[in-house]
Design goal:
CATH topology of the largest domain: Rossmann fold
Radius of gyration: 19 Å
Strand order of the largest sheet: 3-2-1-7-8-9
Bound molecules: ligand BJW
CATH architecture of the largest domain: 3-Layer(aba) Sandwich
Shape: elongated
CATH class of the largest domain: Alpha Beta
Number of helices: 11
Order of helices and strands: HEHHHHHHEHEEEEHEHEEH
CATH superfamily of the largest domain: TPP-binding domain
Largest sheet: 6 strands, parallel
Oligomer: single chain
Number of domains: 2
Helix content: 40-55%
Number of strands: 9
Strand content: 15-25%
Length: 263
């Protein structure tokens, strides 16, 4: 299917859909200047060993290294801006919410960078947590990053523990409330878009199947093929920062020709 035909198809789904779920991964933030994980040359895991940085074992072995790494990641995330892909998703949400109400669109993101929210998205579930919140390893008490002083690595907590980022490392459970909210959105979704994720990390990798079983149309937007490419109805290859604005422009064109449906 050509790119413009694919965009047309997804746009026509969005015109009809009352509930949309978008699953995003690191690729959505790549055009803002943040590294993905698994890209062969530029990905973080091409340069660093995930088992040395993104597990609780790594933090227990070398809390200084892991704290410094996440502090560096935070500094990068803070210094970049949401890109046209983030903004187009925010636009998609307000367009759908205007037509069908608050629950019409949910972004489930694996990203910890906060760029969807800064780009204007409101209903965002951060299933792998956020780099903007940290918590005490002893009490679990959370503190916004702005309250922490990064003048010692690792950062001692007020309760005799250490402060760690509220992100989900390999082998850790996802936040139960984020999982619950994700499943609820997946059960009712009519369109599921997988954008900028390699689709290999569980449980997020299974969300597309849950949506499909719930009857959703499925599409993928990615620079490359993924394990989902063959099973989605529409696969668009390219940069999300270019495709998503084109998709929203097409949605608006089609909507101008078609009267809005009642919710
Ligand atoms: C573009 C683009 C552009 C580029 N436009 N596209 C065997 C042993 C141990 C565990 C497991 C196991 N088998 C399964 C597991 C479970 C494990 C897992 O799935 N492992 C697999 C890797 C095998 N999962 C877990 O452990 C999860 N917890 C869990 O399952 O709990 C239950 C349990 C408990 C105990 C034991 C077993 C199970 C937790 C997973 C947590 C993942 N954490 C990380 C780090 C978070 C913090 C941080 O950011 O540092 O999350 S890992 C990393 O991968 C990060 C990401 O959110 C996640 C997904 O990556 P993502 O976003 O897809 O990025 P990439 O780089 O992979 O892909 C980018 C894509 O974008 C590419 O396709 C590009 O082509 C594309 N792209 N530019 C469009 N401009």
């Amino acid at each position: 299917m050509s790119a413009s035909k694919g965009i047309d198809t997804i746009a026509s789904w969005l015109l009809e859909a009352r509930s949309v779920v978008v699953l995003t991964g690191a690729g959505v933030s790549a055009e803002s200047g943040l590294s993905t994980f698994r890209d062969k040359e530029e990905g973080l895991w091409a340069k660093y060993d995930p088992m040395e940085l993104a597990t609780i074992g790594a933090f227990e072995r070398d809390p200084e290294l892991v704290t410094r790494w996440y502090h560096w990641r935070f500094t990068k995330a803070k210094d970049v801006q949401p890109n046209p892909g983030h903004r187009a998703l925010a636009e998609m949400e307000s367009w759908l919410v205007d037509r069908h109400g608050d629950h019409a669109m949910t972004v489930i993101t694996q990203n910890i960078d906060g760029l969807h929210q800064r780009g204007g998205s409101r209903r965002v579930i951060e299933i792998h947590g956020s780099i903007h919140r940290w918590r005490c390893t002893k009490t679990g008490e959370e503190r916004p990053l702005a309250e922490l002083r990064f003048d010692a690595f690792p950062i001692p907590s007020a309760h005799g523990g250490l402060m760690r980022p509220c992100v989900v490392w390999f082998g850790e459970m996802l936040p139960p409330e984020a999982l619950e909210a994700s499943f609820a959105a997946l059960q009712r979704c009519e369109v599921f878009l997988s954008i900028g994720t390699s689709g290999v990390v569980q449980p997020a990798a299974s969300f597309i199947e849950i949506a499909r079983e719930a009857g959703a149309r499925t599409a993928e937007i990615n620079k490359e093929t993924t394990p989902n490419t063959d099973s989605v109805e529409v696969a668009l290859f390219g940069q999300s920062g270019q495709i998503l604005p084109a998709l929203m422009a097409r949605v608006r064109e089609l909507a101008a020709d078609a009267p809005a449906r009642d919710t």
